[in-house]
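Work Package 3 (structural annotation) set out to generate three-dimensional models for the target panel prioritized at the project kickoff. During this period the team completed the workflow that converts sequence records into discrete structure tokens, so that structures can be stored uniformly alongside our sequence database. As a representative example, we reproduce one entry of 261 residues exactly as it appears in the project archive.
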Amino acid sequence: MTTVIKRNKWEIWRDVIFALFAREIRTGFNDKFGLSWAVVNPIAFIFVLSFIRGRLAGGETHTIPTFTFMAIGILLIQSFLQTLGSSARSISKNKALFAFRQVQPISAVFASALFQFLIKIFVIIGIIIIMYFMGMDLHISDPLLFLVCFFLLSILAVSLGLLFGIAELFVKEIGKVRELLTRPLFFVSGVFFSLQDFPREYWHFLNWNPILHAIELTRYSVHSTYGHEGVSLGFLANVVLIFAFMSLAVYHVSWKQAISR
């Protein structure tokens, strides 16, 4: 006699996310390099840019080693942009699976975001290993603040990805608009510069950007001598909370209509 195993909603949701997570790995990295390329590529990119900037700008930038200054900026902006793009694309990419009642768009978004999060963890480990062999300082002044900033930026990326993903089901061209809007973020989010490089009267042109707050606060968490003038953890947290609430509200109202189009 066949035994029927009953599962509650949380167990079903967990299994669906795990299945989508496994599918993300298989479909995204099925070439010869495999999953390793997802880690090696960003590490190489971060290392080359940080090393070049370190050689050109000297040993320190605002009391923080230039390599560390650049590595933090590139790591966080890469993490944000890749998580945002992956989360937005995950809904349309898995649209055929939504015919199954247990599979919902938000599960695809969470699976994609989890995959990107794990990749960045391995990237951080890779950068730490490189810094160790290069004889660089690995001290972190405030590990909790470092984790909070990384976590808040990830939530912001997932929230915006969910909004764009739902919008793209209604208007496919929204994806092109998303790419157009996110490209300048690499240059206006404090990746290559510090807020301290500008006079105070111009700070209001830049500190509207929550990514800038996350990057500057992360640098401060690594070296407390860097300072955190002009940026605020409260502002970053409030922006993340607003967009998280907005994305979940939009999703709750429109996801059934969106996947039926």
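The beta strands are 60-61, 64-65.
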